[in-house]
Amino acid sequence: MKGSTTLAMRKRWIEIASLRFVGARFQDHALDMSAILELPKFQKIFVSLAKDIWRERNPERKKLPEKFESFFRLRVRRIGRGSATVPLELPTAMTAEDDDLFGEKNSVASEAMRLIHSTIASIERRSALPKSIPRHVVEEMVPWGGFENEDEAICVRLVNKGEARFTSQSKDRIRSYLAEPHEDNVDEYGEVFEADVRAGRFQMTRRDGKRIGVDFKEDQEATITTALKEHRAQQLHVRGRGLYTSTGSLLKITRVDHMRILEHGETSSGQPSLVLSARPIWEELVELADKIPEEKWDGVPSDLSSTLDEYLYGKKLR
Fold first, then answer.
1. How far is Cα 21 from Cα 70, in angstroms, rounded to an integer?
2. Residue 4 contacts residue 66 (beta carbons within 8 Å)
3. Number of neighbouring beta carbons within 10 Å of residue 238
């Protein structure tokens, strides 16, 4: 049974992380009821990041594995000591595909939790955030916490690692980070209309008509030149990293990790491909009309548009 082992068949659990709630309301290992609302917020952050990591590991696959979110649903089976400590657990992997998703070593789940931990630790130290943390995940951290007093914190602890402390000050630092230009993941489709092979740079027109500069590597040159040659008929799919404004507008693509020329008519949504440089149909019609001699136009009835069926079928319809 490939990648679809039911949760009911899983007997063992692994602790992937723990959240320690610090503050006066959490004394005597008591978890305040309002704080329980922070658990699904953390779940959302975790799953959102896990999806991005899986897509980065599997660029050739268009859809997430079936029941992805169900498999990544964190479980709470007890409240531990140390203020109110909530161990977060996942079922033990049963198949090779499961192990890649949420096994104990180098799985999507373990990488997602390590990245959350290192991001919160970076915020606490006021240092640069990890380059691999997507901006939208950082944005999802802003509403997390639910702090009622200045002394409160949520500490994220991984097995064999120290705690990363998240506080109301952490939320302020995130807002400052979000107000600055930043790097983030890129997943774009467009048309290549200009390339400088020596400089390792090309220009791409996105589907909204905006032109974006893209830096590429030498081993990607053949794909770029083919896309440029066929730019009127084919689109290019690019994944990598890009520089964004504080409001989220893409300025340029700084690194290409994956690129692919779409097949004729193919798009990510399965809809017919839009070729931005294709000539409008009315221009094509005008060009055809210009090729018809003037004397031919003299024989066209003046009421043709309203009586077309009469001329075609030889009977009056009015």
1. 25
2. yes
3. 25
CB 74 within 8 A of CB 60: no
Enumerate domains of the chain plus CATH numbers. 7-180 (no CATH), 183-261 (2.40.50.140), 282-313 (no CATH)
The whole-angstrom separation of Cα 276 and Cα 204 is 11
Q: Is the pLDDT of residue 275 over 70?
A: no
Predicted TM-score (pTM) of this structure: 0.62
Nearest-CA neighbor of 145 among 294, 22, 257?
A: 22
List pLDDT tens digits, range 15-27. Answer: 899 999 999 888 8
Alpha helices per DSSP H over 84-213: 96-102, 108-125, 135-141, 168-178
If we measure between CA atoms, which residue out of 46, 67, 155 comes closest to residue 110?
Answer: 46
Q: What CA–CA distance (Å, rounded) separates 310 from 296?
A: 20
> What's the pLDDT score for residue 39?
94
| 205-244 confidence digits (pLDDT tens) | 887 888 899 999 888 998 988 888 877 777 889 999 998 8
Rounded to an integer, what distance in angstroms lies between the CA atom of residue 192 and that of residue 228?
Answer: 5
**Measured CA distances, 3 to 48, 93, 104, 153 (Å):** 20, 10, 16, 37
Give the model confidence (pLDDT) of 82-101 as tens digits.
668 999 998 776 566 666 77
Take residue 267 and report the two structure tokens written for it: 């798009």
Tell me the residue type at 210.
Answer: K
For residues 191 and 205, give the distance between their C-alpha atoms in angstroms, rounded to a whole number.
5
Which pLDDT band holds residue 52 (cuts at 50, 70, 90)? very high
Place of tokens 């996105």: 206
Please give the DSSP secondary-structure letter assigned to residue 292.
S
Q: Which range has the worst mean pLDDT, 24-28, 109-113, 241-245, 302-306?
A: 302-306
Alpha helices, DSSP H, located in 89-167: 96-102, 108-125, 135-141
> Which pair of tokens denotes residue 310?
């009469």
